[in-house]
Amino acid sequence: MHIQKFALPLLLVSICSLAKAYDPADKVIVKPGNMPIIFSVPHDGDESLGWISPRSKGATVRDADTRELAEKTADLLEKKTGKRPYLVIAKFSRKFLDVNRKEEDAQESAEAIPAYHHYHEQLAGFVTEVSSKYSGNALLIDIHGQSDDPGTIFRGSRNGTTTKRLLKRAGNVALQGPTSITGQLQSKSYQVFPAIDATDLKEDKRFNGGYIISAHGSNNATGIDAIQLEFGKRTRENASLASDFADAIIAFQNKFLTEAPASN
């Protein structure tokens, strides 16, 4: 009788534990590529992480349409060049976990930590791969959305810090000259900040880059050049954005990224 009395509660606890569990690999889209470009999309997910409660601190707003922008741009790059960028895209909601923050600030539940580690481990793996394959001449683009200035695309690089290798190799023109990514977008009538004629690399402090680019950028010995792009709400609604973004990346790659010969 005593065994039967406690069997049901134990069974319920077991069932609840299983219900709460999640597989971190199912919460992150990871797609390898074959060009020296990595897209990171941390804030357009809508899924929960087990039964974790929403975070009570920090930004939780979804960067709507940034996943679609990354995936459409990847498809167009393949169509235009025959090659695709690497993709790491969060399926989980920023309400539960923000991977663009340090681990201690990114979550309020230990249950979220496996997803946090999985996201950054996938990025780190791709960074290592492209760094080796393309002799360090590669770029991580962390894609975000903002509504503070809906008609503007903001570049973030910690004022050039996370593109240390690129600046040393090619100078400021690679980051905000006519053939930089934002320079190409400006030439297609998008409003960008900083503008290509800016006299220095100073960025808007609201959008000058978060944890992802600082953790994986070339400010680290094992990192690659990394920028954050904050696309304004109105720019994300532009039907031509993905195509224009793809063209800007192609122009930048042709000018500033030299692919290493394929190994036999």
From TrEMBL:
A Pfam family matched in the record: FGase
What the entry lists under InterPro entries is as follows: N-FG_amidohydro
Would I find Translocase among this entry's keywords?
no
Organism's domain of life? Bacteria
Which residues, if any, are the signal sequence? 1-21
Q: Which UniProt keywords apply?
A: Signal
Q: What is this protein called?
A: N-formylglutamate amidohydrolase
- Give the organism the record lists: Uliginosibacterium flavum
Query: Lineage of this protein's species?
Result: Bacteria, Pseudomonadati, Pseudomonadota, Betaproteobacteria, Rhodocyclales
